[in-house]
Amino acid sequence: MTTKKNKGKLIVFSAPSGSGKTTIVRHLLSLKKLNLEFSISAASREKRGEEIDGKDYYFLTAEAFKSKIKAEEFLEWEEVYRDNFYGTLKTEVDRIWKLGKHVIFDIDVSGGLRIKRKFPEETLAIFVKPPSIDELKIRLKKRKTESDDKINMRVAKASAELATAPLFDIIIENDNLEKALKEAEDIVGGFINAK
């Protein structure tokens, strides 16, 4: 990994699926003043809709993912569901730091907390909380990207993820998107500009 003096900051956004974290991350990436670059996660799942390999995710087979785990090429990784892996390649963080930018992550709760543990000083870990589990289910259904079984699995997982919220530096409740975007902008801007 890059030496300490070459490091930027790490901004982690984690939340149950459907909480709005991706919308918040996209908003922050659009603000040039924050000097952020998105950390593209590796995933062993099929592409959804218009997703592009190398832009949305690095799509790997489960076998290729497992071989990279063995080779210790990940900063963090998680088997989210059976043979469904997500993780952050060390080379991805290096790539962004070499650009002189700060890394922003849109990753699962376990991965976010692992990054915070590995880089406690450089990391701001933000948990995006939905207004309720019922609202979360409505949002997931509106996506129309997954079966009812998958949605139910995500909703069941959300309860456990919500219990981890106090382990994060900041909790943003996304009950009003405009308010959540502004709050995220202020918090991230303050963290980046702090010496």
Notable characteristics:
195 residues; alpha/beta; Rossmann fold; five-stranded parallel beta sheet; four-stranded mixed beta sheet; globular
Question: What is the helix fraction of residues, given as a range?
Answer: 40-55%
Within the largest sheet, what's the order of strands?
A: 2-7-1-8-9
| Straight-line distance between termini | 22 Å
CATH topology: Rossmann fold
Characterization of this structure:
This protein is α/β, with parallel strands linked by helices. It has a single domain, classed as 3-Layer(aba) Sandwich (Rossmann fold). It has seven helices and nine strands, in the order βαβββαββαβαβααβα. Strands 2-7-1-8-9 form a five-stranded parallel sheet, sandwiched between helices. The protein has a four-stranded mixed sheet with strand order 4-3-6-5, with helices on both faces. Strand 5 and strand 6 form a beta hairpin. The protein is globular, with a radius of gyration of 16 Å. The model has no long low-confidence stretch (mean pLDDT 89).
